[in-house]
Amino acid sequence: MARDLRPFFEPRSVAVIGASEKPGTVGRAIMTNLLERYRGKVYPVNIKYDKVFGLKCYRSILEIPDEIDLAVIAVPADVVPKVAEECGRKGVKALLVISAGFKEIGGVGVERERKLLEVVRRYGMSMIGPNCLGIYDPYSGLDTIFNPSDRQGKPGPGSVAFISQSGALGAALLDWFTEQGIGLSKFVSYGNAADVDESDLIEYLVEDERTKVISAYIEGVKDGRKFMRAVAKAVASGKPVVVLKAGRTERGVKAAASHTGSLAGSYSVFRGALAQSGAVVVNDLLELLIAVRALETGWKVPGPRVAIVTNGGGAGVLATDAIETLGLKMAELSNDTIEELRKALPPAASPYNPVDVLGDAPADRYEKAIEIVSRDPNVDMIMVIALMQAPAIDPSALLNVLKRAKESTLKPIVFVAPGGGYAYKHLLEVQRLGIPSFRDPIEAAKALSYLYTFSNAIDRVKKYLQILT
Amino acid sequence: MARDLRPFFEPRSVAVIGASEKPGTVGRAIMTNLLERYRGKVYPVNIKYDKVFGLKCYRSILEIPDEIDLAVIAVPADVVPKVAEECGRKGVKALLVISAGFKEIGGVGVERERKLLEVVRRYGMSMIGPNCLGIYDPYSGLDTIFNPSDRQGKPGPGSVAFISQSGALGAALLDWFTEQGIGLSKFVSYGNAADVDESDLIEYLVEDERTKVISAYIEGVKDGRKFMRAVAKAVASGKPVVVLKAGRTERGVKAAASHTGSLAGSYSVFRGALAQSGAVVVNDLLELLIAVRALETGWKVPGPRVAIVTNGGGAGVLATDAIETLGLKMAELSNDTIEELRKALPPAASPYNPVDVLGDAPADRYEKAIEIVSRDPNVDMIMVIALMQAPAIDPSALLNVLKRAKESTLKPIVFVAPGGGYAYKHLLEVQRLGIPSFRDPIEAAKALSYLYTFSNAIDRVKKYLQILT
Most buried among A234, A273, A363, B66, using CB within 10 Å? Predict the structure, then answer.
């Protein structure tokens, strides 16, 4: 059973301890966020003020004449344990501690965190943090991310959950998700993970109906076995887990130790365990974005065999290299398919895989080729490449072809359009059809490889879980 | 001695054989290009017309009452040998054959190409093509790329030469260069390379004063030894050569054979030879762009040791992993440097590499840190990372810091700003300072690794060339 973390994401009432109107303060930013979009009750708490944004401000949480589900704490570190004690006495269920100055600073901070945790445990509360950006839930509007709104994009509601050990990097990725149109179920910057850790979060997200894909930036995990089991549970339940682990080299581990105090062991061991648990392991931010965009589609694929349809031979060769390098396979088209393609395409076209519809291909030639390869039982996934600089392509006709292709086949389709602004503009239109679209064949091949990695893991991980439990 | 290819790039007079005003024709697109920007004399040739765009149109090149340096041929393939014969009789030096329908179609095309080449040789002409997009030279304005101008970006004058065996992919990359602000010296799509081949082009570019970086998309080379020697000559003369070779896997080789008829041998052997010749070998389009942008700076580095200055610990860890994975080294900062950093930075900052100036770092804290690490003799290159979502950063102040840093140190500096639109906008401002700037630390690390690969090769390749010759 996962821990019940609902009070963090959908509290009926929130106390903001450290609430303020003072410009530049975290307390002001959080109040502004909550008053703007969160529909539950908000209670500012600050010993210094009588009112904050027109709301009565309380000197202590104990004075609030209502039950409080969640307390967001943004006060100086040395006051946090006392404030937490008051939350406990008030019967608060969940603490979200934004304040820094705990284990991550060493010395006195370590002792402070121990004390805080002791309070949390004594009252049976749950805590996320300390030393974090907190939570953004686009469904409930709960939002403690205090970066200025003109620099910090926040995605709209969707199906991707993202948890991050690093607040700053998490915020940057969240901003990037927004630009890429990735829909979010929940974001959690969990900081020091003194109580609720990455595994608890993943377990909760497995049960969260809105979350279909789980993604994580991690420097070190608190409990390796627990983490691997959480990942395996997610995968077995049909939810992919994308993991970007920092600290993969000896020097990276050293840097992570000085950043979050994470003591990472050998990455190759960790990576092996992750793969066994069915995680989609990525190596950089760009790959995390590609994986999320691919898996957000919900597509599952029975095998690794890719067919390419392209109007440029060179791009087809590059895509072939990418597919084979990433452990996928170029589909061996059936004789029937090759014969059909031969009839449907001009003599100079290539009916073999990669299918080259030639530089003068109009959209309807693409349509025929895509239709024919998508019927071939030897094809699991399709990559369509268009060099949009060519005069022959009518972008809106191609868009319609891809729209119909997506509707008429269950096989995953990805799209590639290399080049500058014109190509990119039309690529984004294809992207909006729900077809993951990229500028370089290598990115599209990665997208397909993540789909395959996940799909291929589900049954294996189900069995592995039976052994584990 | 390199072949004299100047008549291709800076002809005093050009005959366009197949010139036309008919919309959608290659002959029209080339005429339009030349009349718009090329300052030499242009003579349209077409048996069907008396005038083309107001110019007298000749029935044959033989009728033109002027010497012709370059003939651009865009007529049906079966007429090309006859037209080439006339060019020979006219005393034309250079033929640029755009027309397709030669070796690449097999059968009759092979024989046609053999016949064409025989004519070229008999008259002592040089030929680029057939089956190509031709040339774009932003200095002379010579431009035979016939894609519509609204879909095909063409870079302004600069120092990067780009040659491409594939016309369509070459055009897409050229378009992409434009978007990225990469300045071009020359672009050549050389197609079937029946006469002038990739090695001839590289040898010419080594002697071309405007070219400082040579980049190439290649499926197969005509003569491996000649190619490796051309690359080595370039590197020994201080010009990096970036090579993207398609057909790196067994299936990729097969696809390349069906595209351009290139018979590539084992890629690992080819790659080894390339490395020995000092080439910067890249694996995909994105890497080619990164390499070109890095090497366009002209920076040379004495060693592989990188210092990182970041306002986000997580990004610093990811960058560390990237650097170490790519064969670079994290610089071991000297004790003096560490001491200076400790004094200059707040207590919670990390004075070790990666240097963490903390999330609340204003621009002047970055300035101190960059200044201190750039003085350290253990540091060869610097990566500055800014998570721009943080409220503390004033982007214009940071821009000034980076401007001054670039002016005051000879060490290469690259910049990273992960995230969405706000971060990207400011990243592009830094990019315009001449500091290669990226969204993901992995890209910045690749940029530095290409700088190092090239710098490290120069002396070695000079010696290797002495042995070769």
Answer: A234
